[in-house]
Amino acid sequence: MSYNDTMKLSSKHQKTLRTVFEDPVRSDIEWAGIEQLLLALGAEVSEGRGSRVRVYLKGVRAVFHRPHPQKEIEKGALKSMRRFLTEAGIQLEE
Q1: Nearest in space to 16 (alpha carbons), one of 6, 26, 7
Q2: Contact (Cβ atoms closer than 8 angstroms) between residue 34 and residue 81
Q3: CA 91, CA 22: separation in Å to the nearest integer?
Q4: Would you call 24 exposed, middle or buried from its count of C-beta atoms within 10 A (0-12, 13-18, 19+)?
Q5: Helix, strand, or coil here: 30?
Q6: What is the rounded distance in angstroms from the CA atom of residue 64 to the CA atom of residue 77?
Q7: Residue 27 contacts by C-beta under 8 Å, 6 or more apart in sequence?
Q8: Where are the domains of the chain?
C-alpha cells in the first residue's frame, strides 16, 4: 500500500485508508477515524453550517456531512470520500 506522498501514516491511519477503498463498500467506518486520516494526510478540515465539514487537501476542496446521530459514515458519502481522496492523489496501490 502506498500513496503519492512522502508522509508516513500510522498503522491505524493505514488501516482506515484501506477500509475506505475496500470493496464492497463498508458501512461500519466511523467518521472520526476518517477525519483523523484526513488530518494525518495534511488536509485542512473546518466546520461549516450545521453538520457540514469542509475539507481541503492538495488543491482539492469538498464538503461532507458529519453523520448524526450514528457515528458511521453512509455508503454514498464513503464513495464521495473515495473520489475526493483519488482526486487529491491519495489512493491504494498494489
Answers
A1: 26
A2: yes
A3: 11
A4: exposed
A5: strand
A6: 7
A7: 72, 74, 75
A8: 11-87
pTM above 0.85, yes or no: yes
Each residue's pLDDT tens digit, 35-78: 999 999 999 999 989 999 999 999 999 999 999 899 999 999 99
Q: At 55, list the grid cell.
A: 475539507
Residue 66: Cβ-neighbour burial (10 angstroms; 0-12, 13-18, 19+):
middle
Q: What are φ and ψ of residue 72, in 5° steps? A: -90, 145
Classify the phi-psi angles of 89: left when phi > 0, otherwise alpha if psi is within -120 to 50, otherwise beta: left
User: What is the CB neighbour count within 10 angstroms for residue 27?
Assistant: 11
In the CATH hierarchy, which fold is given to the domain comprising 11-87?
Metal Transport, Frataxin; Chain A (3.30.920)
